Batch of 4 targets.
Target 1
Amino acid sequence: MTEDVILYELAAADDTRFSPFCWRTRWGLSHKELSFKSVQIGFPDIGELGGFQRTVPAIRVGETFVEDSWNIAEFLDEMYPHRAALFGCPPARGAVRFVECFTDKVIHPTMLRLVSRDVFDRMDPYDRTYFRRTREEMLGCTLEEAQASREQTVQAFRKAIHPIRLTLNKQPWICGGTPGHADYIVLAAFQWGRLATNFKILEDDDPIAKWFQRGLDLHDGFGRRVHPDDGGPGFSSVGLWKEAMKVPG
Ligand SMILES: N[C@@H](CCC(=O)N[C@@H](CS)C(=O)NCC(=O)O)C(=O)O
């Protein structure tokens, strides 16, 4: 397969790619040493891609369209069997499914509580109404209420992810000696936090924070370079565009 990969994904008003599910695929593509073209799509328009799930990430490679980060990772392993595997053997793949479910049902809902108000601030006005309505439904409260309790939320969160800490005390990566899709699933959740907010989610000496830093260094700093501190787009224009466009907060 020689065609270029197109990755459809969300972006903030300042062009930061913050979506955790899309970061799973971004890291998967970089793991396979594949360059890709990133195409931004607004939240309300995802259905126009024509997928069944109406979610991003989705990729297009020639005539092939694949949606869902898990399906995309499987597709990449099938298409590029000679490049480093994302999953490995069938039992390993099964265990990655657990990591995916834990992340989707424990890490993401809490991360949403921690970052959603900041994401809203950074979002293009076009996406804001949709984002507030759908995310407040998910949270069961307003974005502001979720943010108001984040000190308590983050304390509970650090305890809830202790099994990851224990794993990383025994081995450098969630997948063992080298990183794979399970690492990218969890790294992507923390990348969401890193790119969406300045709020401190992990203490610097936490083994999970150290693993995250190692993750950012993977593939020539692929994940690190996107942050404004490292030359990426990001926080610099927050507030400014809002004022310029006279959009209510
Ligand atoms: N299981 C899917 C979930 C993807 C997902 O939920 N993506 C979010 C963006 S981070 C989305 O597209 N949401 C659509 C919406 O909120 O309408 C995957 O792993 O790709």
Target 2
Amino acid sequence: MITISNLKAGYGKLEILHDISLTFAERQFSAVLGPNGSGKSTLMKAIMNLNTVFGGSIQLRERALIGEPTEAISRLGIAYVPQRENIFDELSVLENLQLGARVLPKDERPTALKELREIFPILGRRGAQQAVTLSGGEHQMLAIAIAWLSKPSIMLLDEPSAGLAPAIATDVFRVLLELREQGITLIVVEQNARRVLQYCDYAFVLREGMLVFQGSAEECLRDEETIKSYLGVH
Ligand SMILES: Nc1ncnc2c1ncn2[C@@H]1O[C@H](COP(=O)(O)OP(=O)(O)OP(=O)(O)O)[C@@H](O)[C@H]1O
Ligand SMILES: [Mg+2]
């Protein structure tokens, strides 16, 4: 469980997130929604200590994360898949996966890579291919797979379905549901509210750096008018 209280964060001296308080529940699939520039990626970066925090607290269960090096936060079991530059383009798919597996003890790596091929079958067939040549969906699967290899208890995914055709986005969400079945807590930034609400348990809506709405997926779908007005979509 990640608990954020009165978080103010941004870049340099610029405050982007204003007084955010929320809890990402354990083993749930939480979505972070909001229009462009509302601070969704900034929230993920704040959890990973990749920007400036001006105040408030971020706790992983009882442990304070603010000020911890990003490496240490990853070692606590939080894997982050950024919105961009989330794989090594010039390496092959297999090399990317082997790099991802390096955080595991040596004797666990073969089993993890084997299990990975069951969750992400498409990658098994693409091992020798240079990562830059992957399709959009394969690219996202690879980025998620690399993060999964560190055996995280929490995964932060920044727009994993952006730019994908609807059928391919569905494949990505199916994989995410499987990861949640494994007990992984998912925190997923998504532009397409209607789509992610079909899969997530709970959603948070940001607007101009503030938390303006939260509720279960069902509540959000029932209250679609509110969501629409918050997100500015029609
Ligand atoms: N490195 C940075 N330096 C300064 N300002 C930044 C930086 N990164 C983002 N911002 C600003 O912070 C605000 C929030 O950006 P953020 O990337 O968190 O939005 P977002 O909700 O993820 O948007 P999108 O849906 O387009 O990805 C924007 O106004 C953006 O210009
Ligand atoms: Mg973003």
Target 3
Amino acid sequence: MTAFVNLFSPVRIGSMKAKNRLLMSAMSINFGVDDKGWVNEQLTEYFVARARGGVGMMLVGGGAVHPTGLELPQLPALWDDGCIPALEKMVAAVKPFDCCFGVQLMHGGRQSYHDKTVAPSPIPALAVVKSIPKELTIDGIHEMVNAFGDAARRCYQAGFDFIEIHGGHGYLINQFMAPNSNKRTDVYGGSFKNRIRFLLELFRDIKSKCGADFPVGVRINGKDYIENGWTLEEALKLSVILEKEGADYLHISAGIYGSKQLSIPSMYVEHGCFTHLAAAIKNEVSIPVVAVGRIKTPELADLIIKTGKADIIAMGRALLADPELPQKARTGNVTAIRPCIGCCLGCIHAVLAQEPGGCVVNPDVGREYLLKTDEPAAAVYNVLVTGAGPAGMAAARMAALRGHRVTVCEQNGQLGGALRLAAAVPGRSEINDVIKFLARELQRLNVEIRLNTPLSDTLIRTIDPDTVILATGSLPDMPMLKGLFKTKMDLCTVTDVLDQQSTVGDTVIVLGGNQTGLVLADYLSTRNKTVAVLHRKAHFAEEMSSNDRYYLRERLKQDNITLYKPVVIDTFLADGVQFHIGEESVTLKNFDTVVIADNMTPVREAANLLRNKDINIHIIGDAKSPRHLMYAMNEAEEIGRTL
Ligand SMILES: Cc1cc2nc3c(=O)[nH]c(=O)nc-3n(C[C@H](O)[C@H](O)[C@H](O)COP(=O)(O)O)c2cc1C
Ligand code: SF4
């Protein structure tokens, strides 16, 4: 029986019919091309995995139509006919899976990562990319129009089913459309009609080169969320025009680099955050409208279609986290879906750092071509995992998937380790989804879990393991700072506070401005505490993704929170602290509590119990070296796979 009947009903897009209404949106994943920018096996297998997972439509993206528009170095280059054979091979590999396969055409304009950027006007991007773009001449604009048409023709020749034009997110087309980035005084600037001219010209060029029947959708912003940017009123007007021009679908996203609402929002933003924009457009047109933005569950996807807010649901990150989401949803196996947690760290943060994109909860992203077979282990071992944080649980899952007998022992009464505490602060409960997923998986795979059970000689004798995986995590490190141990303020750690082992007074000094310190400040502020965060480094929470940090920093703009950096502590006082920021000396007084939330130190005392025993030992996650979740998950699966 098919669950989510609205989502899994077929949909027609022009001459194309898709088996369901799930579209994997274009994601510039920054891997899988050779030195010419032509797609290779790595990208192909990444898409094959998702097509096999049952998605109805997917988009390669963003394919650069012109060298000046290459947003990131490792994106498909579509400006030369030489790209066609590799694209053909990719199309052929996806063909058996009944998935409509398209390409998103983009030109990054001023938001491209190189120093030869072009744009409608010489105004630099508002964030992320710093170079000043060259203003396009009229000839230059015509060259770009042609480039879009030619790139589309190459995709058509390679056998793709459809094309999407990227007219949103502050890239070149959007730069023409928005008044704040287009100051031209010729026929491509000024009035609404002039600002959309570039898009209409390239749309017509694509249709003329690929034929009117070849489906072409357009992704636009429902709104830029920026002063003097593209507005919903303009998007409504444009949608009607695009329908008349012959657009086969409209895909409604939002935001640009530096906008108030980001195009790729983090866990702080509500699910379905841009659906209202799609719904407004859907009222104006009769071609299919795609909604996108933090739609990660089949329940919400189905509801959006059922309530007529959109015809198609685009998912991006949810399909990075679990390529098989569609299949699992369709068969009602929703609890088996590996959830995206909206951290933005493995995917967009990596990509914007010009590294290959990945996923914190799914270490397989980009490695699909290396992992074509998941063979059972040659011999079955007794595996004991100590520590049921994310690393321990993920290692146990992978070991059990390979057929080993696995026991997990955890000294606390709950699963999740430090991740459980990371989810206990405002706006971050979505992190719990990954703990719940791993817990369900361990249950499904018959992994024995022993809570309130630290590693002991008795346990080792009882289980008699061949292998022990030590995933005992980390704890806050007590710093050696003058006066800290003599102060009359209460002293505790972030772990104590979030685990509710310690209470804090009304005025709190948080020592450390990494993610842990900042989310703690947020937590304390919502409990009406006055908080001073002292950070010794030049930047706050550098280990967070910039998208996620952006929303956290907005939350921290409260009267009862003060952030200080870079701080050199002189001494703690009976009720406060004295420190320097550069030349300036600062004294804070009348504080009740100091919470240590800075460096973490690995916990691996349990390893002593394993000495001189004939047992393989692997130390993973924070117990090996405290780092962020992606490393823990990666290491865990790697170990699980090699047992
Ligand atoms: C790594 C990454 C790269 C992206 N690259 C593109 C892109 O090339 N073109 C585009 O239109 N959107 C791009 N996006 C945005 C997604 O298509 C999507 O709109 C966004 O992630 C919100 O949807 P989601 O919440 O389902 O992930 C990218 C997103 C991610 C995570
Ligand atoms: S890295 Fe984080 S936001 Fe990105 S897909 Fe994975 S879980 Fe989702």
Target 4
Amino acid sequence: MKLGIIGTNWITEQFIAAATATGQYTLAAVYSRHLETAQAFVAKVGSAAVFTDMAAFLASDLDVVYIASPNGLHASQTAAAVTAGKHVIVEKPMVTHPSQLAMIEAAKAAHPDVLVFEAARHLYDPNFAVVQDFAATHTLSGATLVYAKYSSRYDDYLAGKDPNIFAPRFGGGALMDLGVYLVYAAVAWFGVPTRAVYLPHVLASGVDGDGVARLSYPDFDVTLIAGKTFNSELASEIYTGRETLTFDSPGELNRVTLVGPQPRDLTQAKDANPMADEARVFAQAIQTGDQALAAKQWALAKQVHTVMGQLRAGTDIRFGNDPE
Ligand SMILES: NC(=O)c1ccc[n+]([C@@H]2O[C@H](COP(=O)([O-])OP(=O)(O)OC[C@H]3O[C@@H](n4cnc5c(N)ncnc54)[C@H](OP(=O)(O)O)[C@@H]3O)[C@@H](O)[C@H]2O)c1
């Protein structure tokens, strides 16, 4: 498949490495706001056509577009790519407000053959299925899911610069950046919560540096801890009677261990590139026209972003492209 990319940061390089390693994608086009940036990027990753005009990029000979721009641009760029008849792999979060899902759905309705996947890479990690199986086969008493990493951009923020990921105009902050991995995990493993509340620590820029969410289910509650201003070494845990399943962050899933009367290491081996599994699954789905998988993942994404909207609705965090 001919791959076009939007965004020229390290994450795009990592995706291209994962994608080309599958043997199913060939980098064909790079969009950047600046010609020099596009050319410098192409020089690093191989050869490809370069574009600074989005319409020309989307009209070019591409099968699939990978979008890794600032969060606030994802929904409109996804809708534009679908409207141009291209399959889309869009970085998380696909939307920064649940109302933006309708714009993408309208574009999808006009192009029913096009598949759209949100690149929630942990869903395709073999250890995600290990935890999912455990949750599905045990009576749960609750869970704590943690993803908090000191952002490489936080130093810039503290120095008075205005990095996109700490900016409300682009839908930045801990919930949108890392919390979305936790909400995805909670909804996939436990279902849609009956109530979702978020207590953020809001930075002067207006986005959350960190925060704690509580998701309520009929028989248990789940605590989510997300942060971009510190590193957490806390384990994530799922509680069930005398046994506890422990793992690092749901966004990393390097080790899964059962603690209890019969402790066991349940970790599955995985690829060194954390985007390898999703790149392979998306290629297979697009090439076989797997509408069933796309519909299943779209339904999950809708549930996740509805919960994300509920979490943010109870806070003072407002983004530049929120509806009036
Ligand atoms: N899956 C993962 O593991 C993972 C890891 C990291 C990031 N991500 C996701 O990837 C996305 C990009 O993250 P990032 O940290 O790379 O973001 P970023 O550096 O702020 O921006 C990404 C790209 O967007 C373009 N851009 C920057 N500022 C822009 C602006 N003001 N207007 C329009 N375009 C702009 C730039 O490309 P040009 O200069 O070439 O136009 C840049 O390379 C985010 O949604 C993030 O959540 C995912």
